[in-house]
Amino acid sequence: MTRLLSVRDLRVGFGQDPKANEVVKGVSFDLDAGQTLAIVGESGSGKSVSALSINRLVDFGGGRITGGSIELTRADGSVLDVTKADERTLLGIRGHDVGMIFQEPMTSLNPVHTVGAQIEEAFRLSKGLTGEQAHRASLDVLGRVRIPDAQSRLGYYPHQLSGGMRQRIMIAMALAASPRLLIADEPTTALDVTVQAQIMALLAELREETGMAMIFITHDIGLVAGIADRIMVMQNGVAVEQDEADRVLDAPQHDYTRHLLRAVPHFTSGAAVRGDSARPTASEPIVKVDDLVVRFPVGRAWFKPKGAIHAVDGVSFDLMAGETLAIVGESGCGKSTTARALLGLNTVTRGDIQVTSGRSGRPVQMVFQDPFASLNPRLNVEALLAEPAIANGQRLDADLRKRMAFLLDRVGLPQDALSRYPHQFSGGQRQRLCIARALMLNPDVVVLDEAVSALDVSVQARVLDLLIDLQHEFGLAYLFISHDMAVVERIAHRIAVMFAGQVVEIGNARAVLHEPQHSYTKRLIAAVPAVERRRQRFAVDMTQVPSLVRPAGYEPPAAQWREAGEDHRVRLEEQA
Amino acid sequence: MGKLFSALFRHPSGRIGLVIIGLYLIIAVLGMLGLTPHDPLKLFAIDRLKPPSATYWFGTDLLGRDTFSRLMVGIRQSMVIAFASVAIATLAGTIIGLLSAWWGGVWDGIFMRVMDVLLAFPAILLALLIIAIVGPGTTTSIAAIAIVYTPIFARVVRGPALSLKQRDFVDAARTFGSSQPYILTRHLLLNLVAPLAVQVTLALAWALLTEAGLSFLGLGTQPPTPSLGLMLSESRNLMQQAPWLMIFPAVTIMLGILGFNLTGDALRDILDPRTQRREA
Questions:
Q1: A567 near A507, Cβ under 8 Å?
Q2: Contact by Cβ (8 Å): B134, B126
Q3: Which residue spans traverse the membrane (chain B) (predicted)?
Q4: Interface residue ranges in chain A relative to chain B, Cβ cutoff 8 Å
Q5: What is the homologous superfamily of the domain B2-46+56-271 according to CATH?
Q6: Averaged pLDDT for residues A565-571
Q7: What superfamily does domain A3-103+179-263 belong to in CATH?
Q8: Residue B274, pLDDT above cutoff 60
Q9: Domain extents for chain A?
Q10: Per-residue model confidence (pLDDT) at position B277
Q11: How many beta-carbon contacts under 8 Å exist across A and B?
Q12: Using an 8 Å Cβ cutoff, are A15 and A21 in contact?
């Protein structure tokens, strides 16, 4: 094995005085050719900055390397200290030696050029290929990233492709230069789980085909288990632990690594579902949704819509007081639309939603996914918490302040929070605020729409615990919308799996997770990354989600169900 | 608000702009209180066309009136018209922009097409048209300039309001059952203060120029009330003999516009969300 990269005591700072504002405080690591290093840490730990220093992209974000060295062995065998290289040399490095893929494939691709033109450009810049040669090379590389029907895909624009497809295009562009090192900065964070599994499998296969080294940056230590040779754990700009992957995962030395591993939602195929409160069969459900249909018209021809997006197509479920029903599925499956329909936030095409009015006039409240977007940045906490009460005719008086103080205490926020503004809180604290706000009206049902998805894993675990406590204390029913099976396993009593606008499997959480019946449920569960399953290998599964745009007047065939056990129903699959 | 001012003062061009505007406001107030070195309307018949001196700081005009005193009152006149017209335009534009964004559909179409028609005319031409119909005067100038700049505010408000309307916190407010006026003011308008503040300072500069232009054409402030445009217009034929009659009003107009523009640019820098740090 030859040494490819050797980083010694790397320090990177930002701002006017980079020495005073160091984000990376002395990180050292080595990487051999063909090896994969995973850098794991929570947001702000300096993991991305460390990796971006290797091709000096960090300069463009306002960062400055304040100390240390980065020695990169180039293709001709010469060793170069990247920290001292000039911009010309760096251009060569970025084009030839070090490839890069980013988190958000939509913003890394130019929306006004076809993906073909962009891949050909990558070949022109790195290898000097033009015209027919570049075209052929592009076709070839699309094949390598397993994009079917490559010839026609080259003519597509980025917006016509799904997130997973776009990320594959980005990988193809990075491969164009045949890099000896590929830096992947959270490449799957913006993607759905099954797509994430596809990309991870693809990266693993490509690494074997090309023999390139990889630096894989992620916040999810569970994700890297299957791909990394070495793992470096970062916290506050310092590498707290680095070693062989197996050693880090099985015998973590540092407290923070142990903490990360504990916080990773461990998916155990239904073994860890909640044991409390069995479903009361006798009582009436508090929410009853019957054959809910939500369609959005698309494409107008002479004032009549040409077709419709069948966002939700015949969804039925009911929710008992005090129970958690999780709706799982991937983006675009209609789970959020279902939740929003329940709150009256979008118009319902057909179907029936019955909510038994319990303790208050507004029995259903909601917590949104993004705690940064769901709190008005210009209002202080007192105004934010008071809003639901004021909207329902209460006044901002001593009683209301007492309730606010009580709820702040219950969600674990300090009393002096009332006079502060949202930007003064962390993501997890903001989500606690949103939960407190949803409880202001004393609801019976809280809809949690990906409520913990935007949070760091350790924060996620604490918010989940809080939710379970609050559920017991206030007797709340949760409709928990999520794409994350491991999270769902911890909080759900029952699970409904949605695919392409329809519920394909619904039932008791243990049954659904332990003995999944529908092929989609099985795929979803297989895609969950887990430390425990790191030695399993998955083939690259290229199944695409079907289009939900249907011609006007189209009605799907009636659903056929089969009972798979007590409280466990599965939709029969069409024989293809 | 105090924080904003200190931030403006730390910004290099913001400091210059603030100083200029402050100076103009002081002069305008002094002009309003009649605290001028001489009576701006009084004719010093023996001191006609005197160059700047210790008695007449900026010289005198053809009728022997003191240019400095007239400039002070002229600045007052310009400031009153600029602030009044921009205030009206801001109010009207904000309401129209907010409601079009909120109601959407047909209302949006109607409101914004009317605004488009107004925007299609050059500002000064539209103002001329309005004054030609109603007749010149201070009130008409205010009204005309307000109408001319209303569409700009409507557009500045509508764009961000449309995107704010889609934000989660507006959806959240709907789930509590918050009233429409509450959502419009607390959730939309409060978040529009930054772009509006920038637009207001820039519009003040344009309004100052438009007012000067109208007066120059004889359609704004009517003599004998002094105004910057009018003074420029009177100086036209005396450019050779008495250049101070042209230079001082011209520089006054220019500095005023510069002051508002510099402040506007500084405000834009300070309030730009991309330069604001979001704490995670």
A1: yes
A2: no
A3: 16-35, 79-102, 114-134, 188-209, 242-264
A4: 43-44, 340, 343-345, 362, 364-366, 368-370, 372-379, 383, 387-388, 390-392, 423-424, 426-427, 434, 437, 440-441
A5: MetI-like (1.10.3720.10)
A6: 85
A7: P-loop containing nucleotide triphosphate hydrolases (3.40.50.300)
A8: no
A9: 3-103+179-263
A10: 43
A11: 73
A12: yes
